[in-house]
Amino acid sequence: MGARFSWSRHFGDCFMRTMRCDLWALATALLLACAGCQTATQVQDARQALLADNYEEALGRFQQAADKDPQYYYASGPFTEGIWTYVGRTQYATGKLPEARRSLERALSIKKDDYVAHIYLGLTLARSGDRDAGLKELVTGMRGFHDWLDYLTFNTRYGIYWDPNREIRGQIEKDLDSIDKKYFVWPQLIANGEWLGKKIEQEAEIARRNEQYERQRDRDRNRFPPGVGVGIGF
Known about the structure:
Elements: H1 2-51, H2 55-68, E1 73-76, E2 79-82, H3 83-93, H4 97-110, H5 115-127, H6 131-155, H7 167-180, H8 186-223
Antiparallel strand pairs: 1-2
Helix pairs in contact: 1-2, 2-3, 3-4, 3-5, 4-5, 5-6, 5-8, 6-7, 7-8
């Protein structure tokens, strides 16, 4: 009896320790999920400020999000943009060029094919006086994003939502042609680069909303197929 009692007590202790560990793990997971939701909400609020040209507000919110999660990436369908790209581009927009350069270089150290970061690093370097390096970054960002849009158009279902009229790619092609032929002027190229950066963010928002609308429409069609009605018979 004593052995059975000792084993039962030992089993009970193990069970309670396991339960405490499971509860601790669950609580930790819930806290992390909550923190992730808060960061996502903060980034979305910052993006809305960015789209409305409220750059100081956007910068403050992006910096707070970066402090919480330095590896955070905003994702909408196939589009992603790192938190340090957002910080860097809003630092650029508020005239904080040395800070913008550090943030954008940090963004590219995390993800080398972050084309928005390349574009804004190019703008930052050009406005800081290093035009050769700035031009290289701009070309990398423009070509990369152009090719990414082409890939979406010809290989994925997202192509219908992104640059359907080729407005973005058309402007990139003009800019790259002027760079190749060396007849561009810097003020215009910088203005075009800034337009491109803002247009990409606007396009991401439009694509996100259109895709959500299409999904909701498909769900409604599945729930209420054409020709199927609900009636009362007598």
